[in-house]
């Protein structure tokens, strides 16, 4: 037998190989347990994160619903205002009154900016 090979396998018997195999199996099980614990921690973290995302999405949906309702009410107010403007423009005397008021507003703004 080669001296290096004899030194390498010196003292290994059948029982020693089995003990080494069982020790390796225990190490593998220990590594697996640690990996499982790490995965459990990640799953818990992901569950918490997905719950936070769900809560944030719900908050944004409520906010968008409120904004939609506000836009609908604004649209109603604007359509009422536009109807009133249409009535003002339909009559000639009202059109003259509107022109007079608009002229005064423009003159006021010009004088305001010139004196400022």
From TrEMBL:
> What's the protein's topology in the membrane?
Single-pass type IV membrane protein; Single-pass membrane protein
Predominant cellular place of this UniProt entry's protein: membrane
Compartment list: Endomembrane system; Golgi apparatus membrane
Its transmembrane ranges are 97-115
In this chain the T-SNARE coiled-coil homology domain maps to 26-88
InterPro entries tied to this protein:
BET1_SNARE, T_SNARE_dom
Q: Which UniProt keywords apply?
A: Golgi apparatus, Membrane, Protein transport, Transmembrane, Transmembrane helix, Transport
Protein name as catalogued: Bet1-like SNARE 1-1 isoform X2
Supply the gene name: LOC107425879
């Amino acid at each position: 037998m080669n001296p290096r090979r004899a030194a390498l396998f010196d003292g290994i018997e059948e029982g020693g190989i089995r003990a080494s195999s069982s020790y390796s199996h225990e190490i593998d099980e220990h590594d697996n347990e640690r990996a499982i614990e790490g995965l459990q921690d990640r799953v818990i973290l992901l569950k918490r994160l997905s719950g936070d995302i769900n809560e944030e999405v719900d908050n944004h949906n409520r906010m968008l619903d409120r904004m939609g309702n506000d836009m609908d009410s604004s649209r109603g107010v604007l359509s009422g205002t536009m109807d009133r403007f249409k009535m003002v423009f339909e009559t000639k005397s009202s059109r003259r009154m509107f022109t007079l008021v608009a002229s005064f507003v423009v003159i006021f703004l010009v004088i305001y900016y010139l004196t400022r």
